[in-house]
Design brief:
The protein is of the alpha+beta class. Strands 1-3-4-2 form a four-stranded mixed beta sheet. The longest helix has about 40 residues. It is elongated and about 140 Å long.
């Protein structure tokens, strides 16, 4: 056999194997792209703009409802796209008037505040912070926190109006009481039992 014939056969064989590999890779890529597109079409992952209330309620964050004048709806839609806000414009049945409700999630509240401020609406007032509820005194005192003795962490304060008696006055009273007693003779006690 001729050497050029063997080289030609080898070239054809290699090109067929390369083509086969390319077709397998392309088919696998098409399969993965199709799966990705199918998943994206079913997920409904809209993150900005007008949406349905059903899609908005899938998000677990609490809802925010804000009133908006009817004449500002078009301007709100344009600005909501710029600010990247997901929202629903709703008007309850039977209610007629000059306002509609804008429903969104709490995660967009900062953007909604900025948008409403850009439209000329006043910012909502923050509620006054509530004072924390103080706990009542416990029924049973803690082991080492007696009010009479203190607990070592704070200086002891007396709650009653009485003054603590002076040590000198107490010693003087004990000396006066001791004067009337007979002196005792010292006894020698070695501590042994007899």
């Amino acid at each position: 056999m001729d050497a050029s014939g063997e080289v030609a056969d080898l070239m054809v064989k290699e090109s067929l194997q390369a083509g086969e590999t390319a077709v397998k890779l392309a088919a696998g890529g098409v399969k993965h792209v199709t799966a990705l597109l199918l998943a994206l079409s079913q997920s409904d992952r809209k993150i900005i703009g007008k949406t349905s209330i059903r899609k908005l309620t899938k998000d677990p964050t609490p809802a925010v409802v804000l009133p908006l004048r009817n004449e500002d709806v078009g301007r709100f839609r344009k600005l909501a796209k710029e600010y990247g806000i997901l929202y629903v414009i709703a008007r309850p049945k039977g209610r007629t008037g000059e306002t509609v409700d804008v429903i969104s999630n709490e995660r967009y509240s900062a953007k909604l505040n900025a948008l409403f401020q850009a439209m000329g609406y006043p910012l909502p007032e923050k509620p006054a912070p509530e004072e924390p509820v103080k706990k009542g005194t416990s029924r049973a005192p803690q082991e080492r926190s007696s009010p009479e003795h203190g607990n070592g962490w704070r200086a002891q304060t007396r709650t009653d109006k009485e003054e603590k008696p002076s040590v000198r006055a107490r010693l003087a009273a004990l000396r006066e009481a001791a004067k009337g007693l007979e002196p005792m003779a010292p006894s020698r006690d070695t501590g042994h039992i007899r």
